[in-house]
Amino acid sequence: MGGVGKTTHVTRVYKEVATSHFECSAWVAVSQTFTVEDLLRKILKELHSGVSVSASLGRLERRRYLVVLDDVWDAHLWDKLRHAFPDDVFGSSVVMTTHSGEVAKAAALERTMMLEPLPWNEAWKLFCNVAFGGRIPIRCVRSTW
Fold first, then answer.
1. Is 35 among the domain residues?
2. Mean pLDDT, to the nearest integer, of 80-87?
3. CA distance 103 to 114
4. Total domain count for the chain?
5. DSSP per residue over 36-75, as a string?
6. Staple partner for 6: which of 39, 44, 97, 107, CB 3.0–4.6 Å?
7. Which residues of 23-42 are buried (b: 16+ CB within 10 A; e: fewer)?
8. CATH number assigned to the domain comprising residue 89
9. 143 band by pLDDT with thresholds 50, 70 and 90
10. How far is CA 34 from CA 73, 78, 112, 133, 145, in A?
11. Is the pTM of this model over 0.70?
């Protein structure tokens, strides 16, 4: 479901752990009309900024990396990319956000986190808190619309 905060949630975690727990990291928005080659090129560019793509191929095997693939629509994306990410003992992670249950099932059903929308009153309080920077006007605190 759209609008439940998937990207926001992953962004906060990414900012917290990307530099402190991983040697390299990449955040890539996946377009609905991606090509595997372009997507891999973007990922490598993010992972190895300042290093040529040809020099960076194969270097993930010895590194702890975090890759976020944001807004994935293709249920077969992980099958197309899996070969590029070594399954090693270094604790690397690939995280995908998606609106599609089919995409989540195809990637890793046992590691799927489903986010549900907040109840209306909690969503409203959160909106007001963000919109007014913690100084919520009394008219903003409502239990019904």
1. yes
2. 85
3. 12
4. 1
5. HHHHHHHHHHHHTTTS-HHHHTTGGGGS-EEEEEEEE--T
6. 97
7. ebbbbbebeeebeeeebbeb
8. 3.40.50
9. very low
10. 10, 13, 23, 37, 41
11. yes
Q: Rounded to whole angstroms, how far apart are CA atoms 96 and 15?
A: 15
Domain that holds residue 10: 6-116
Using left for φ > 0, alpha for ψ between -120 and 50, and beta otherwise, residue 119 falls in beta
112-121 tens-digit pLDDT:
777 677 788 7
The 3-class secondary structure across 95-113, one letter per residue, is EEEECCHHHHHHHHHHHCC
One-letter amino acid identity for 1? M
Q: Which residue has the tokens 């590194």?
A: 63
Query: Which residue would you say has higher pLDDT here, 143 or 75?
Result: 75
- DSSP3 helix / strand / coil % (the chain, rounded to 5): 50, 15, 40
Angstrom distance (rounded) from CA 7 to CA 12:
9
